């Protein structure tokens, strides 16, 4: 691929892409003996297929419909990517096919700790579904945070961790068909969303931050306008307007954990 002028992605080494002088882009993704080719430069795609045929014995299967558990559906206005069958198989495998659906993947007030005083659970029984859930986050960003939390306890899972994992499965039971919708539109805006749970970990008082960015629907766009930035800073505003609330902040606990960590190092 590099000999053909393609660059290898540093974020995913199985992804190769090439930008043509006309502004088009062609991308190739490979997994063992399966390949996806996409892009808006038809000539380059045809050239790439011809070169691949010269190097390997390949068979073109047409428009992408199913790849590594990911289902792709098309219409004139959009492309929908989901893992419906993957979710269904996961629920059957974990014995949750007939479970009661949950409205959310995690209780927003729940704080999981190492829970050494709680009864341990079988490590394999915990790691297998959590691993499957990690892969599911490719098309289900709505469970990304919850899965990131329970995956922190893979080395020593306890009963509360398993219950939290089951809560995600119950949530999936009520929404197995959800996925990501890529709409065809001409509106190009750059937006970023971020939120942070300041010093939210009850184990070491570390913070958890999450963010996502959206730039239209192209792979390479030059953008020079101001970007919209959304964040949740109500607490900071309230504290700034009411100094009495300063004694309720977590700075003292954070300082204590920080100093203790440095002393141990």
Describe the structure.
31% of the residues lie in helices and 22% in strands. The protein is of the alpha+beta class and 265 residues long. It has three domains: 7-62, no CATH class; 82-180, no CATH class; 186-264, no CATH class. The mean pLDDT is 87.
Describe the secondary structure blueprint for this structure.
Elements: E1 7-8, E2 15-19, E3 25-31, E4 34-39, H1 42-55, E5 66-67, E6 70-74, E7 78-82, H2 84-93, H3 123-136, H4 144-150, H5 159-173, E8 179-183, E9 190-197, E10 208-215, E11 228-231, H6 234-241, H7 251-264
Parallel strand pairs: 9-11
Antiparallel strand pairs: 1-2, 2-3, 3-4, 5-6, 6-7, 7-8, 9-10
SSE-based structural type: alpha+beta
Order of helices and strands: EEEEHEEEHHHHEEEEHH
What percentage of amino acids are in beta strands? 15-25%
Strand order within the widest beta sheet: 1-2-3-4
Calculate the mean pLDDT score and round it.
87
Q: Enumerate the spans where pLDDT stays under 50 for 5 or more consecutive residues.
A: none
Biggest sheet statistics: 4 strands, antiparallel
Rg (CA only): 23 Å
The share of residues in helices is 25-40%
Count of individual helical segments = 7
Q: Would you report the number of β strands?
A: 11
First-residue to last-residue Cα separation: 45 Å
Q: How many separate domains?
A: 3
The outline comes out as globular
């Amino acid at each position: 691929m590099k000999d053909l002028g393609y660059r290898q992605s540093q974020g995913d080494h199985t992804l190769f892409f090439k930008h043509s002088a006309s502004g088009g882009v062609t991308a190739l993704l490979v997994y063992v003996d399966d390949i996806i080719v996409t892009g808006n430069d038809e000539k380059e795609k045809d050239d790439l297929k011809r070169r691949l045929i010269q190097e390997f014995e390949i068979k073109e299967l047409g428009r992408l419909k199913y790849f590594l558990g990911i289902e792709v559906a098309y219409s004139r206005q959009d492309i929908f990517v989901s893992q419906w069958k993957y979710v269904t198989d996961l629920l059957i495998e974990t014995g949750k096919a007939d479970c009661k659906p949950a409205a959310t993947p995690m209780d927003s007030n729940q704080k999981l700790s190492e829970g050494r005083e709680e009864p341990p659970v079988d490590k394999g029984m915990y790691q297998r579904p959590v691993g499957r859930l990690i892969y599911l986050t490719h098309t289900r960003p709505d469970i990304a945070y919850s899965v990131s939390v329970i995956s922190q306890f893979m080395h020593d899972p306890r009963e509360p961790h398993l219950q939290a994992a089951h809560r995600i499965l119950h949530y999936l039971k009520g929404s197995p068909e959800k996925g990501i919708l890529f709409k065809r539109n001409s509106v190009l805006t750059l937006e970023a969303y971020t939120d942070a749970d300041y010093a939210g970990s009850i184990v070491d008082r570390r913070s958890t931050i999450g963010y996502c960015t959206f730039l239209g629907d192209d792979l390479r766009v030059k953008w020079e306008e101001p970007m919209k930035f959304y964040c949740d800073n109500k607490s900071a505003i309230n504290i700034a307007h009411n100094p009495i609330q300063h004694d309720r902040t977590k700075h003292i606990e954070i300082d204590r954990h920080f100093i203790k960590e440095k002393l141990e190092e």
